[in-house]
Predict the structure.
Amino acid sequence: MTTAHRPTWAPAKGHEEQGGARMFGPSHKHSKLDDNSHTILKKRADGQQTIKELMEKDFRAELEEKEAKHFKKKLSGAAGAGDDLMLGNGAGDMGATFVPKPLDADDSDDDDDDDDDDSDDDDDEDDTAALLAELDRIKKERTEASARREAESAEAEAVEKAEELASGNPLLNLRGAADFTVKRRWDDDVVFKNQTRGEPKHAKRFINDTIRSDFHKRFLSKYIK
């Protein structure tokens, strides 16, 4: 294991016996991480299930009492549930009693059920046919509207293209005052135009001396003289 992470309590010092086995006294310093911690054991306070409290409790009596309450509640619930169905949430709310309707042997329930089923089927078929007809009508209207929009857009494009062809050529666009003169530039009548046209051009030369260079001479003539 490396000791590079540990502090150097006895650093190396250069002297005439450097490299030999130097003797030095033990260090009296220590790290705070080496201090003793958690020297006191925590104990339960009163009311936190101490040994004395647990010894005084009668667990057998408590268990028998809980079992008696459970079986009493279970038996009372089974005895209270009769043949009648109770409508309620069951928690202290008895609600209304549901009494089944007595059946009559002379009633023809099967026939009524068959008639109801036939009428329901007929109604469903009528509703389906009406929905299909409405769907076909909506599709037809949308198709006609899209065709009409396409025709109008094609007609508008044709008219715009014809107008562009007619007005694109200035020789054919003679409806207004035709002007075939060449337009002047915006800087034709300015005062300061081509100011450096007549000035002589000086060729740039390189002088390896900051005092005798052309730039230094221009600087002196501009700001010193």
